[in-house]
Design brief:
alpha+beta, Glutaredoxin, Glutathione S-transferase Yfyf (Class Pi), Chain A, domain 2, four-stranded mixed β-sheet, globular
């Protein structure tokens, strides 16, 4: 059985949890507390030398890390990862967007507000994340006005990647009421067979 090392409040970890449920795969969840430094122990670093979650331990005892890489592994051969080269590349395109434009702003603002309680010494960083986070949300909104999901008309790991932090963006101070296409998309993802919430 797969083991997932993660924090239930982390969007990057939730991506893996959601994907496993959508695929109907069994797994064991191993809680890791990043605020207590549990990702910096020698034991954890032997699993991921970069000291970050999530980490997935495979049945053969090997480890995978980086959330979007794990999603590609899990979804390989399923309908969540298109086989057609152009569509598969578009999935990757959105996953790179998530890691470079969306997550560093939406997720970081959420971390500063939810995990740290919005300390004054990080307020300027938080405000900068708001500006760039809304810019990333606008990119998503424009795409979702054209297509049902981020890559055409079928749910893919591109959607799982971006759903994770978008659906809890309010915990980072983002107001999604002005993004109706994102709102519709969030509802569609939540209605998928096998769906599980972040805190479920």
């Amino acid at each position: 059985m797969l083991k997932v090392y993660g924090d239930e409040r982390s969007g990057n970890c939730y991506k893996i949890k959601l994907m496993l449920h959508l695929l109907g795969l069994e797994y064991q969840w191993v809680a890791v507390d990043i605020l207590k430094g549990e990702t910096r122990t020698a034991e954890f670093l032997s699993k991921n030398p970069n000291g970050k979650i999530p980490v997935v331990e495979l049945e053969d005892g090997s480890y995978l890390w980086e959330s979007n890489a794990i999603l590609n592994y899990l979804a390989d051969g399923s309908g969540f990862l298109p086989s057609e080269p152009r569509l598969r590349t578009q999935v990757l395109q959105w996953q790179f967007f998530e890691q470079y434009s969306h997550e560093p702003n939406v997720a970081v603002a959420r971390f500063i507000q939810l995990y740290l309680g919005l300390p004054e010494e990080r307020r300027k960083e938080y405000e900068a994340c708001q500006i760039l986070g809304y810019r990333a949300l606008k990119v998503m909104e424009e795409q979702l006005q054209r297509t049902t999901y981020l890559v055409g008309e079928q749910l893919s790991i591109a959607d799982v990647s971006l759903y994770a932090y978008t659906h809890v963006a309010g915990e980072g101070g983002f107001d999604l009421s002005g993004y109706p296409a994102i709102g519709r998309w969030l509802q569609q993802v939540a209605e998928q067979p096998g769906y599980i919430g972040m805190y479920d």
